[in-house]
Amino acid sequence: MQSLPTQLLQSILDMPGKFIDIALFDPLSAVLILIGALLVGAASAVFGYLSLGAAASLVVRPGSGRSPPPEAK
């Protein structure tokens, strides 16, 4: 019996071949796989962009929050 990390690695390595087999089975399957990949890729890119922007904001100007209104001073 294989260990869980070994099975996980093997399934990750087998996955592209299975996706190709499914995509070649039917043209509609290929379109659906492509649309799914584009949606996941776009969502990941937006999340990564927002995360990097937040991290850069903390590093570049750590104390640049909003100041209190003038009457509060």
From TrEMBL:
Organism: Haloarcula salinisoli
Transmembrane domains' residue ranges: 31-60
Name of this chain's protein: Uncharacterized protein
InterPro entries (UniProt xref): DUF8024 (IPR058337)
Highest rank taxon of the organism: Archaea
Keywords: Membrane, Transmembrane, Transmembrane helix
